[in-house]
Amino acid sequence: MLAAASNAAKELDAVVHHRLRVALMPELKTLQVVDTITLAQPLGAEGLRFVLHEGLSPEVDTPGVRLTPEAPKPDEQNGQGDHDDQDDQDASGSGYSTAYCLTAATPTDVIDTVTLRYGGVLSHPLAPVGKEYARGFMSTPGIISEKGVVLSGASLWLPRFGDELITFELDVSVPKGWDAVSQGTLTPIELSTKKAKRPRSTKSTQRAESRPDNRVRWVSARPQDEAYLIAAPFTRYEQSEGSVTAQAYLRTPDDALAAKYLEATLQYVKMYEQLIGPYPFTKFALVENFWETGFGMPSFTLLGPRIIRFPFILRTSYPHEVLHNWWGNSVYVDYATGNWAEGLTAYLADHLMRENSGAGADHRESTLQKYTDYVAGLKQDSELVQDDFFSDSDSDSGSDSGSANEGDAGLAEPQHKPSADKPLSQFRSRHSSASEAIGYGKALMLFHMLRLELGDDAFVAGLKKFYADNRWRRAGWTDLRVAFEAVSGTELGWFFAQWVERTGAPTLELKNLSVESVEDKWVVKGTVEQVQEGAPYRLGVRVALTLEGEEEAVDYLVPLGGDATATDFEFSAKSRPLRLDLDPAFDIFRTLHPAETPPALSGAFGAAGQLIVLPSQASPELLEGYRGLAKMWSKNGEAEVTVVTDDELSELPQDKGVWVLGWENFFFTEATKPLALYPAKFRGDETDLGAATISLKGHSLVTTCRREGGMPITLICADTATPLPGLARKLPHYNKYSYLGFEGTEPSNIAKGRWPAVGSPLSAQFRDSD
């Protein structure tokens, strides 16, 4: 059963209000804070517990209130709270919190407002997070530096009282020429003739206080689950429409770039208001970070300097970040029951953009292929861990920047757990390709199937009701079910239990297919069988029948489920059937047969066991370049990787995914032999890929295909070592492609494509003899 009662029947979560005066001193990596706190419940003799960053040394400034330090509990160590996965500690600065207890000095006193003064150094260096090449990025729980300031709930820069939501007024002082961004609304500063008092001034802080400051004030009147503070030497741009202001904070002035983002912001806000409901904030801001990131915060997004300049970001990842203000940043996620927000955001942003351009089926096919390659196809993999970056979706960038849809020989010890697969109820946030395929991909498909189950009108009505009922609350999968049941009058317990609580996916086979002419009609018969382990799923699977003389296929729905794993079907048609396709638009979440989709790099990266074969006859410089690529992937990947030179092997193993590196490789012919199925021709000084021709000199080539038995074999060739570090970073971001061509030392992508799918067992063409 899905856990937790509906938020619609619950009281509002307790809210703590902070009135903050903050002075940032980036040159000293410090901040000074005066925080007047209105408590969610009055302070009595039993006391209230909070945690704060260990370097901030608070003092109580309220008569009759005592402050005593306590040992932090395990879930208070790194500021993430219980709603985030704690497995990823690479950049967490784990153990940086200190716990305190506030108590009333006189038991009979009832105190509901407390003022704390604190300050000190808060600066954790950037560090790599995660081991997988496709998801590696730099992060920090909080940093104050001369390059900029990024503080969040994880930084513990303001007291955290359990799981209470917060509201706040933030008056922040930053160096001259700097600006500051947070949630909520930018409001005018009421200047005072009195100099702000700062706690425990030292010689160093006195020197800092002598500089002229810029003051900025943000007010967040709606309950939030954490508070952010971003500061840097920004140029601010604004454009308003109705009650919403679009903003852009750029570290380097760029009027044209800002104008593009301001216009896109207002367009996306208007679009999602019509689909879901009123935008929950007064502004949405693009904020340029000083390292490559893709974070979405309430009412703003923090993107890296390279990311914001990729032209495709405006139509791919940017709407995803705008939409998060409805899902995740105003309707909050009840992480204890699973993160629904990433999948719903991916469906209504990434998928919707592709669907509107006529490529919805392609997007779903790619989504299912990722699940099949990264999850279902793996025998072992790491468990789900954290990543708050936006989905790479179909970025096509090959960027190695942060998570713009967000790599060393010696073998790393494999970091494996028993299974890559988890139910959606256990997904918290993304760190690996496997976790993304579940939390983003499976959840995306869940919402697509729910839309097909209910129809567009009821689905949109359910979105509106879920938003209206749960705004400024924490919500879970049960609250989604309640909303969609209410608008549709349909009992959906089976649907959510099947897709949220159950691990795995159905696998379909088409059997016993026949066609015959009976009197004045044609009769098509067959069987759809579920062959996955476990009980059959309850599904409605589309069958498309192409008929002679008809431009469009005729659709039939075959209901599957109950106790039977196999379901027979029979269709009648007046015209001769030419072709039958099962689930041709990839509307059902399921594992794919390899022949249903083209071979792609996701299959190569997703193979549980991998062998990288280096070319022993390459020049020393080029061999060392290939060795560096192999080292990066073997160290940072999630699969078990072995690296050898071609002269160490007499033949390639059949049970591993194989990477063949170099034109000079002894196994070059074996890597290209399966390409005979596709329009690929290798000549002396160039390669013809059908849609593109890649010359040998100054270029790099990547192809992938499947060997007999289904295991992937991938060829990577370059004429010099210079482009190989870039290829090592970029290739994981091109995971849906079958072939790629690159030019130069960066290198820059100049060709990409997918081979045609050959011989899908879920499609059949009827011949006269049939």
Written description of the protein model:
The chain is of the alpha+beta class. 21% of the residues lie in helices and 31% in strands. The chain has 13 helices and 40 strands. The strands form 10 sheets. The chain has a 7-stranded mixed sheet. α2 crosses α3, α4 crosses α6 and α6 packs across α7. The longest helix is centred in the middle third of the chain and has 22 residues. It is globular and about 90 Å long.
Write the layout of secondary structure elements.
Blueprint (H helix, E strand, L loop, with lengths): L14 E11 L4 E14 L4 E6 L5 E2 L4 E6 L26 E8 L6 E11 L5 E3 L7 E3 L2 E3 L4 E3 L13 E11 L3 E3 L3 E3 L15 H7 L3 E12 L4 E4 L2 E7 L2 E7 L4 H21 L7 E6 L5 E4 L2 E4 L13 H7 L8 E2 L7 H16 L3 H17 L56 H22 L1 H15 L3 E2 L1 H12 L4 H9 L6 E11 L2 E10 L8 E9 L6 E7 L5 E8 L3 E6 L18 H6 L2 E6 L5 H17 L3 E6 L11 E5 L6 H5 L8 E2 L3 E3 L4 E3 L3 E8 L5 E7 L5 H7 L8 E5 L4 E6 L9 E3 L5
Parallel strand pairs: 1-12, 18-19, 19-21, 22-23, 30-31, 30-32, 32-37
Antiparallel strand pairs: 1-2, 2-7, 3-6, 4-7, 5-6, 8-9, 10-11, 11-16, 12-15, 13-16, 14-15, 17-18, 20-21, 24-25, 25-28, 26-27, 26-29, 29-40, 33-34, 34-35, 36-37, 36-38, 38-39
Q: Give the strand order of the largest sheet, numbering strands 1, 2, ... along the chain.
A: 4-7-2-1-12-15-14
Task: Please give the number of β-strands.
Answer: 40
Shape: globular
Mean pLDDT: 86
Structural class estimated from helices and strands: alpha+beta
Portion of residues in beta strands equals 25-35%
